[in-house]
Write a structure and sequence with these properties.
By secondary structure, the protein is α/β, with parallel strands linked by helices. It is 38% helix and 16% strand. The strands form two sheets. The protein has a seven-stranded mixed β-sheet, sandwiched between helices. Strands 8-9-11-10 form a four-stranded antiparallel β-sheet. The radius of gyration is 21 Å and the shape is globular. It starts with 21 loop residues before the first helix and ends with a helix.
Length: 349
Amino acid sequence: MNSFDFGYKKGFASDNWSGVSPEVMKVLAEVNRGHHPAYGENDPMLGLAKQRFREVFGEDCEVFFVYNGTGANVLSVQQLLRSWEAVVTPHSAHLNEDEGGAPEKFTGGKLLTVHCEDGKIRPEQIRPFLSSFGFQHHVQARMISISQATEMGTLYQLAEIKALADFAHANNMFLHMDGARIANAAVALGCTFGEMTTGCGVDVLSFGGTKNGLMFGEAVVFLDEKLAEGFEYSRKQGMQLASKMRFIIAQFLAYFENDLWKRNAENSNRMARMLGRLLPETEGISLSRPVEANGVFAIMPEALIPKLQQEYFFHIWNESKNEVRLMCSFDTTEEDVRGLVDAAKRLVG
């Protein structure tokens, strides 16, 4: 077999730039043997996976597997939103900034965004949209969508999630959670997935694993199975029904086995804390946001950024402030962190 070496650098650009957990690669090889029913239909693995999710999120939940996070987010919203209704979400949310307009295209609805300095929306920021209820000329706010962890690297405390859910339900709205980094949030908060979602009143969850060691695949979890009626048809129309479903299902079985999700997230969070502690030792570098999960946000000297990017991948977050974002992954090592810090010190000097 040929060996491919493309000269890739070590990276802190995103946790979905990383590879795949060895445990996941192993289970993918195992289920690659023989033939399995297509689409998960009548596949015993699907029943096992659904039961595992019910153990985590409660017996009333219903789960569907999809290809990616955009599909999970868009189909979650589409299921509960009519075309004259809207989702209220932080302006920085992935749903608004990084889905290429897919929510509007596929739901026919609208996104109503709010500037949230820390990436977290609060009930008082949603309240102004309620004045349009019952006014036929205005779009009707029907859903709140939050990210846990947020795109700013911050975390909603459980009480904050519950407050949003209570506000939503009191006003005939739903609460959606984009859980692309939910494992990092659970580890940082010291809680279970169920406590953060079912226990707080979340209605529908996009449960992610790709940023925490899976190859591909996400899950849409309705915490009340009655909300999932007809979703299998929406998933098909939304081009998110995998024919070789076993390769998504098996990854989630491996993900829950022996708390692989937790070990992976613990490492990425730990490496982020280490990076956040060491990076400000470099002259001219300071943290711009607290390190709460696996993201580090920092202000760097303008001249340093392109030089350091020649050695390590990372993104500029806010060009006007020379703010950069560095994401740690399940496979980030102390050597990686110290290498980046040493390079920054050398290039500044």
